Amino acid sequence: MRAAAGVRTFAYVAGVCAILSFQFALSYPVATARGYPPLSKFWEIYAYYVPFVGIVFLPLCGGQRTVRLYSLGAMSVVSSLTLASIQANLDTPRPHINHQVGIGGVLYYDPIVVTARALAILVLMLPAIYVSEYACTCFWKAIFGTFHAIFKKLAIVKKVTTSS
C-alpha cells in the first residue's frame, strides 16, 4: 500500500511539472516578444491560462496531502513569476533584451517590477489554485462515489468480507 501511495505522489508532482512546462511553453512567445510585429490575442491573453485546465485532472493522481500542498504552492510561485514576466514585457512597446536572451531578460531588465507584480499576483493565484484543486477533488470524489454506488447496486463491485 505504501508503494502505491509513493507512485500516486510521484504522479501528482509529475502532473504539476507537466502543467508548468506546458504553461512555460505557451507563455514563452509572449514573454520574449519584441513588441513588433504584434502577437495575436491568443498569445497575449489565453495562452497563459490554458494549462490551468490540467488542475482538473490532478486529483485523479491522489498523493500525500503535504506533497500536494507544497506542489501547488510551488506551482503558484512559478506561475506568478511567469505572468509577471509577461506583464512586464507587454508594458511598454519598446523592445527589451529578453527577445535575445529569453525570459531571463525580463528579470534582468526590470527585476523590481517583475518581483512586485509576482507578489501581487501570488496573493490572488495561491488561493485560486488551492480552491480550484479542492473543488476538482470534491468533483472527482462525487463522480467516483456515484459510480461506485451504481456498480454496487448492479453487483459489479463485490462485497469484501472478513472471515474470522
Can you give a write-up of this model?
The chain is mostly helical and 164 residues long. The protein has one domain (2-153). 71% of the residues lie in helices and 0% in strands. It has six helices and no strands. It has helices spanning 2-31, 41-46, 65-91, 98-101, 104-109, 111-153. Helix 1 (2-31) runs parallel beside helix 3 and helix 3 packs across helix 6 (111-153). The two termini are 23 Å apart. The mean pLDDT is 80.
Question: Which key features would you list for this structure?
Answer:
164 residues; 71% helix; 6 helices; mainly alpha
Overview in brief:
The chain has one domain (2-153).
- Rg measurement, Å: 21 Å
Number of strands: 0
> How many domain modules?
1
C-alpha geometry: elongated
Structural class: mainly alpha
Give the arrangement of secondary structure elements.
Layout lengths: L1 H30 L9 H6 L18 H27 L6 H4 L2 H6 L1 H43 L11
Helix pairs in contact: 1-3, 3-6
